[in-house]
Design goal:
Chains A, B, C, D, E, F: One of its GO terms (molecular function) is metal ion binding. The first copy, chain A, has ten helices and 15 strands. By secondary structure, chain A is an alpha/beta fold. Chain A has two domains: 128 residues, 3-Layer(aba) Sandwich (Udp-n-acetylmuramoylalanyl-d-glutamate--2,6- Diaminopimelate Ligase, Chain: A, domain 1); 118 residues, NIF3 (NGG1p interacting factor 3)-like (Udp-n-acetylmuramoylalanyl-d-glutamate--2,6- Diaminopimelate Ligase, Chain: A, domain 1). The radius of gyration of chain A is 21 Å and the shape is elongated. Chains in contact: A-B, A-F, B-C, C-D, D-E, E-F. Strand 16 of chain E pairs antiparallel with strand 9 of chain F.
Chain lengths: 295, 295, 295, 295, 295, 295
């Protein structure tokens, strides 16, 4: 690597990295109920310099296997799409995985930043990544963010023209995983749909009042599915994090450019959706076959 | 059919059928937030006799295709496991599917009974049916119902001894459908588990504080799954209604005996889980392949 | 019947009648807590035509005697000023009169429409009918409806000039029934009043902060009456529905014109206020004498 | 005055009178939401003796005419069945009648005591007085008071055997005023009733779940009346305070005995129900005729 | 006194005095949770003239010693900075000191007016009096009152330039009492401060988000003090009422001018802060020494 | 140091220390709203041994100066009477002192334990230490803890016999600091008191309904003080933490015995009450004189 050869050790101040992240997707536009931005900042002795960052790990969920990976990779900053602190903490012990993760960050001087709904809303963010599965005639947010530039906001509404079966195939390619479908009453794989509502993650409440032929989201409850089916809306589910995770590979080179190559940026190899769907096999004794990638 | 041959026309009064249903699983033990029992009783002109029942349709969800089937089969009573009226109604028009279903019942003189959590709790009910997938050393409710006989209550906790992979195969056979698995941190298909928590439907809140190696339920959100994984509990998901529907085939002959053969009892052919999981196929142009039965 | 003879079969689509009713008094202006508009729409088989209306029954309250009358008169639409569904329904059985009424409508293919506070607010509606008892110098709503034309809104405030005793006589003629009076401290039958607050039905909360010499409403509690008396406001009570019912006779011909004579319109003969005031007679053994019309 | 002549100056300490009132009907048994007991105690200069009572005025409502009467009669204590302070006071000015009444008591050294629901519940109290209109086979509270002797509690349930018409006549005699009736669906004046629910004042919420052929109370709203009518319960309304006031005449001699004749006890001459029902007269120009006593 | 000599008896109507008080500091600008203005108005017999005022007593708190002083001084109006009625009253007996004070006012025909937060906010009011301890470069409200002239509003923010120790000395002189100090981490008596937040009374919630080197208020809880100390803000506490009381001496001559000398105006001699701080003496047997004036 | 000489390295596992602390004062008896027990447990790498403790720092408040002292003293455990985490945390950055303290503990492998109200309630705890200022005839909790041994519970009520002035002197000696007094109306330094209510810290709500001649607590608001004064209760205030801190010196040797001398135990030298009362000096230019110890 050139930088090693030239002996130039490059790195960034934590505040510089955060400035770039905020320039891409201002956390001020995140949902009111959300917990975003710099969640953990390493301890700084009186008079000490600001925390510096050389290695950054990107992950969708900061599980303990991912935390271990971050320590092994000597990351000084983790960017976790989902905020690892959501329910506020009254204690930080070794009894609960989220408290263990917090203590691991602080004991290993690793900063933690979470963008969550700020990335959902921003142009070029998570929902726009998910929408790329479609040949789009038009796209706009389901709810335009007040005070933000046009195009920023919650969810996306896309005009298109595609048979459902073909869209399912494309979605499986896009998320590199299997898809669950709930056909609307009267729909089949050959039904051509024209409007698609999109919400990465858990989209039922946002999509509730959207008029669309089809919606793509991560997860939805049984009774919500029945409601959409009877309103004439087919639902495609990717599993929660499979509707989000693919964005990280797209963001990695973007962030590299933002930081002018000053940091090494990894996408976690341990981060994956908790669920694997197993095909029902004919012979009961056989091992079940996973229908999706399990890294 | 013997009854036709002998010319004996047999039927039951609605109140007689309800009495038997309540004897099997008293709705007084249903959850406080639930809406159970006789939900629709056909209009009775002043001085008219009580509604009589000859044909009964059993269903997990009273969707519009199932409602149509009930009319075609000339059912006088629908027993729908899930209550079709849950959010209280302020209007009954043709604009919302639940209002259409209610008006269809009343216009066609069809009574509607929903047992829901009363069937979950009762000995020999929905959770006990789901537990049959296991070779059990012991079984007891997660929460024994106060005032009811021992064994009645919410969820089930089972002692057993089985590798996870083998259990998944058995579960696929039992529910006749595919299964989704979230392995606990450290678990694999060959891990032998000893305690299993069971809750048909949506079990996260009930199972939250249960110490078990594995839990079987219908559906669970992403963040709940991560919590179970980090507590050492593998989760098997069947899809919400696939964790419940199989009980109906077991209940059909039981009800026939309870009613002394006085009614014809059908299990709906149109009732099915809204979701189908599609295998990711290699060739993008091909139609996706469903990994589960779609009736 | 003449129409039969001439072979002209006249009737309206339900949506046409509703369109006219909404043109007269848009339900969008009803109170937020109210439950108005089309409350019951008869069941329509898949592919069936829209419900048609030939006979309309107008009533203040949809009691069971009125419901029976509607069936006997073969009404296809009931317009009930008070909404028969107010507390939302979780069941529709034969155990509660409101559930019986709902089931009767649906079993007999009778639509149900309720205007309630939309009719109270509209110019030419219920409060304007009640105000006709006065020789008015001016009239305006107590609360002008935002977004509606001037004159529409809750309650009425009237400038006039009349002794209380004379007004009572006129009110008895107007509502064709007896009146209850609570004289303000210092008022007598010969006190001349200049400002009158009007609110059909139960007007205490709306009238609470109104400065008026006298108010006319349907009913009011004891402690509310004492408050008005001590503020210098005499209260005339008509009984709740007697302050509203007279409007129906005025509305009947109006509706006929709106619908271009396409429907037969009846005012219920069974609808009446639940209360009858009985005169105290001198001889204890005698039957008490009703002081108001009891049909 | 005889007492002056004999030189015997008789009077009671305020605390002595209150002790007797509490012995008759302990205010500890009043409803939690109620405001009962000694509400106003005259100012006592440092070191001054306790307030003494020679003249007591009994009233149902402490209106301003009654307050004036109390001052004229030189009462040192007013016993007002309804508490004149109910909504707590943040100011005591001359702008609101209740504040004027409070200031009048304090400026004129008049104590104020209110028993309200304590008198409703006690054996021999307001509800028992109202029940005397019936020939009783049995009587018991609707809700027995926990911790009190049997027979004390809210409302009364009476077994009897009387045609409604005859009962109405007796009630008119008992309250010395007119009565309003709402016949149950199917009831007429000659229907014989066997169970009667009683609640002086405003009894709808207490009587809501009572199974009775007929109920007697003071006032009830239109929609509550319709509910009772459709449940087979005829309702007799006396007007709120006419269902209570008659008890004062019965209590006057009782209190005299309790206080051993030490005080003069007056029943207010100005206290009366705010409402008067006026008969509809044939000739419009005539003065309306009151159907009830107006003192 | 000149007025006596000339035989001119001067006095004011209560409404005139209130009009002047409201002109100085409109109570419409008081906090929403506050209870201000004319709280007690003496009883006025039917037809009587308005209450007149000759002697006015100013006090910070209307304690019982101050109440006694008011009666002895024959005041017809008490102006109590803190409202003696705050928690609304359900009774007015001799059992609680606030009820005794209310009854004393009404029995002795003394009106009561409280300005409280209206005086805090007004230009020239309580906070401006407290700010006089500082040599000010600039002063403005912490929160400018909407709808009021610039300078009116809650609290004050002052720019200055003074060592903390010197300011403490000045504050002790200004309030004529001892002061409690909580030095910010890093501050000492010689630290020069430039911005000062001021809030008479209990200022923690108002001052919470103010950036200031030092704040002056009356009282503050332990945990609030620790928060300020760690934010770099030194806190000076005067005791609650010592941060307010001095204003009364300044207001006395102002009010005299407003009323054109028509009333005698006294500042209470009995009103004082409840707390006295006692110096720790070396000899245990000695009487402790008060470090502040105790009148 | 002996231990060094003998070469015996003694220390305790964290769980052992906590076991002893819980044996002394079980945190299960702390208030429901409190946040007690092990609040911070240092990060433990997968497979690592449990945290061990050699040096323990006792403090009343974990301020930043005390945190610095803990690091300098190489403490492995801080026992902070007040819980440093009270408002739950959503972030742990370097912007707020409580977050800095939490990060300092985790970065320096220091455990944190807080007993708070568990120590208040226990026999031999903080309130009992405060009560030692009195010559007691009897002592009992204000509220006996349900399920705990007699004597454990909130606050203390003591019977004694002492003039107030003498008690103040003793209290100054006991807390080694100055005292603030609010004399009840009628009390002076020579009044002999017989019942004393005690509540370390902020005791107004607990003491509100206690009948006592005098109460001792840490801090109380102005309006609470006025209420106690008018109820005949003199109040002695120590400043919040001065009513608690002295217990630590008493607890230090106790804990040493509990831990069998296995740990070094320090009482913080930096921990002190935030407030210092300054005597008003006659010469304005002089530095103010602190009336209390400032370590």
């Amino acid at each position: 690597m050139l930088r090693s050869l030239t002996g130039i050790r490059r790195m960034s101040k934590l505040s510089t990295v955060i400035k770039e992240l905020e320039a891409f997707a201002p956390t001020v536009f995140a949902e009111k109920w959300d917990n975003v931005g710099l969640l953990i900042e390493p301890y700084r002795k009186e008079g000490a310099e600001e925390h510096t960052v050389n290695r950054i790990l990107l992950t969708n969920d900061l599980t303990e296997p991912v935390m271990k990976e971050a320590i092994e990779k000597q990351a000084e900053l983790i960017i976790s799409y989902h905020p690892p602190i959501f329910k506020p903490l009254t204690k930080i012990t070794q009894n609960h995985w989220k408290e263990r993760v917090v203590s691991a960050c602080l004991a290993n001087s690793i900063a933690l930043y979470s963008p969550h709904t700020a990335w959902d809303k921003v142009v070029g963010g998570v929902n726009d990544w998910l929408a790329k599965v479609l040949v789009m005639k038009s796209i706009k947010p389901l709810v335009q963010e007040v005070g933000a530039l046009p195009g920023n906001g919650s969810g996306r509404l896309v005009e298109t023209n595609v048979p459902i079966g073909q869209l399912i195939n494309r979605l499986q390619e896009h998320i590199e995983n299997c898809v669950h479908v709930a056909y609307a009453v009267g729909h089949t794989g050959s039904t051509v749909i024209h409007t698609v509502g999109i919400c990465a993650g858990s989209g039922a409440s946002l999509l509730r009042d959207v008029q669309a032929d089809l919606i793509i989201t991560g997860e939805m409850s049984h009774h919500e599915l029945l409601d959409f089916q009877h309103r004439g809306t087919t639902v495609l589910l990717c599993n929660h994090s499979n509707s989000e995770r693919g964005f990280l590979r797209e963001f990695q080179p973007k962030l590299n450019i933002m930081l002018d190559g000053s940091c090494q940026i990894f996408v976690s190899e341990k981060d994956k959706d908790p669920l694997v769907t197993l095909t029902r096999t004919s012979a009961a004794g056989d091992a079940p076959v996973a229908t999706q990638q399990t890294n």
